[in-house]
Amino acid sequence: MRKPLKLKNRIYIAASASVAGRDEAAGPLGGLFDVTDTEGNRFGEDTWEKAESAMQRMATDEALRRAGYRADEIDALFAGDLLDQCVGSNYAHSGSGIPYLGLYGACSTAAEGMILAALACEAGLGVCAAVTSSHFCTAERQFRFPLEYGGQRTPTSQWTVTGAGAFILSRERRGGGVLPRITEVMAGRIVDRGISDLSNMGAAMAPAAADTLLRYFGAGADPSDFDLIITGDLGREGTDILLDLCAASDLDIAPRHADCGLMIYDGCSDKHAGGSGCGCSAAVMAADVLVKVREGALKNVLFLGTGALMSPVTVNQGSTIPGIAHLVRIAGEEG
User: Fold this and answer.
1) Which domain holds residue 213?
2) How far is CA 103 from CA 110, 116, 133, 332, in A?
3) Do both 36 and 105 map to the same domain?
4) Residue 79 in 3-state DSSP?
5) pLDDT value of position 142
6) How far apart are CA 90 and CA 189, in angstroms?
7) Which of 227, 207, 246 is nearest to 325 (CA)?
C-alpha cells in the first residue's frame, strides 16, 4: 500500500462509542464521552489492568448497541492496547465469542484497526469492529516509573490518556441521515530519526506523520479537499515539528490541522505537551470528530493515527524510537 487505496465498496462506520477517565472527563471534551469514571479510574475493577479491559468492553458494548448489532453478528474484531502482549484487549474480549485479531500499533492502533476492519469488509466480511484503549496508570508503571515515584516530567512529555474507543464498520447502511464512510486508507512506513528520549514521543512520531502526509498529498489530493486533517497524537512538540516538516516540503496543512493530544486536555501544566496513548485518538474520534461528521459539520476528514513503536525492554536498552502513521479518509454520506 505505497499509495492511497480507494475502497471499491461502501464501508460505513455504523457506530462508535467512547469511554474516558477522570482527567479526560474534566477536559474540553468531557461532556461528549459516552462513559466516564470521575472517581478513581478503576471502572469497578480492583486493578488498573482490569479497568482497562473493562473500558474496552464498555466501549464495544455501547457501539454495538448503537449500531444495532449483536456480538454474534460481528465477523471479526481488531483490538489492541499498550500493555505487553496486548493483554488488556485479550481479557476484554475473551468471553465475547467474536473472532479476534490482536494489534499493536502503539498510539496509531485506532487508525490501524480502522484500516484492517475496512479492508476485511472490502474483502467480503459483513461487519467488523475496531477497538483500542490506554490507561494512564497501566502505561506509567510499564513504560516509565512506579506511580508512587513522583518523578519530574519534562516539558516535552505527554500524558497517557485513560480512554477507549470502539468503531463498528459495516457494508450495510442502516437508517437515514449522514453516516461516516471510509473511502481511502494508506498504511504508514516505519520512520526512525534517532530519537531515544521517552519523554519526547512527539519528536519520534512527527517524521512518520510527515512521511505519510507527503506521500498521500503527492498522489494528487490537496489539503483544501478536507474540512479537518487530524493527527493522533503528536502533542504540542510533535505538532510543531510536523508543521515545520510539511512546510519545508511546500505542504501547508496548518489551517486545517488539529491534534487529538491537544484537543483532549485544556493545556494545564501537569499535562505538559498534551495527551498520548491508544485511547487518545480513539476517544476523540468516537466522541467528537465522527459525531460532527454525522451532524454534517464535517464532510471530509483525514485521520492520521501516529504511534511510537517501542517496548519497555528497548527503552531501557537505550534504543531509538521508530514512528508510524496510518491514514484513514472519512467522508459523510447522506442516506
Assistant:
1) 179-334
2) 10, 10, 11, 27
3) yes
4) strand
5) 74
6) 26
7) 207
